[in-house]
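Handout for the seminar on molecular recognition.
Each group receives one record of this type.
Step one: identify the two inputs.
Step two: read the structure output and locate the region that could contact adenosine-5'-triphosphate.
Step three: write two sentences on what you found, then compare them with the reference statements printed after the record.
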Amino acid sequence: QNTKLEVKNLQISFSHEGNQVNAVRDVSFSLGQEKLAIVGESGSGKSTVGRSLLKLHPKNATVEAEKLLFGDIDLLKASEKTMRDIRGRRISMIMQDPKYSLNPVMKVGDQIAEAYLAHYKVSKKIAQEKALVMLEKVQIRDPKRVYSLYPHEVSGGMGQRVMIAMMLIPEPEIIIADEPTSALDVSVQRQVLNLLDELINESNIGLIFISHDLDLVRNYCDRVLVMYAGRVVESIKASELENAHHPYTQGLLKAPPRIGDIRHRLPTLERDPSWLYN
Ligand code: ATP
Ligand code: MG
């Protein structure tokens, strides 16, 4: 059995100006070598769950759980030293917008090499060669040229490929992708997701894919957790989503295109735009 994560009755609250906000209540799931989506509207607690797996919660957070296990490591009790070894190397997290995650004054190739050097004792030259191979692996056409570009010189989609290369180079066991494509055009979103899908299928990685777009994840993930107001209201195989029983999940399945999608589709609108308002 290849269970990578076991989460049982996870509760996370924030104290805020004397009040207690219960952001995550009673969340349970496990993750093996599979692709798990966490879907839900803004504020439902998705990112808070993701960050808790790396113990990246802010000071005002209280985290409790019956179980929070990464392999045989109890994350609730893990020291900061243990967490530093896990973060980035064994569990990687990829964020929404590469612009905020990449160092603006460093060549993208060198940033990929650094991600390797941070965890493995090899020479700079070896790390750079590995970074170049990684750029090829994420299907960047001219890796040698792209290696030397700075973040502002790459497009959103290419930036996200660079992020994926950075995330994969230390060979993590789990990847947490928090809305990794929501800043991209719909067509580029699909390309990046297809790539991520391919790379994950060929390795022994568990993926947690956080999104508010059920329609987007249903084709890419094996299982879907639907969160609403901090709780998991549905935990279902992606292939069985049609039979989802919770009204909130049914609502998400029927949801009209989001504002972001509409904006990106506008340039290709040919005729009567009335479909936007139905
Ligand atoms: P989004 O789709 O907008 O990213 P989310 O599902 O990721 O939303 P979270 O960011 O996990 O939602 O937030 C869950 C709840 O916890 C929200 O009510 C949020 O306001 C609250 N929260 C998150 N971080 C903090 C914090 N540092 N202090 C106080 N409250 C917080
Ligand atoms: Mg979030």
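Reference statements: Residues 186-201 form the longest helix (16 residues). The chain has eleven helices and eleven strands.
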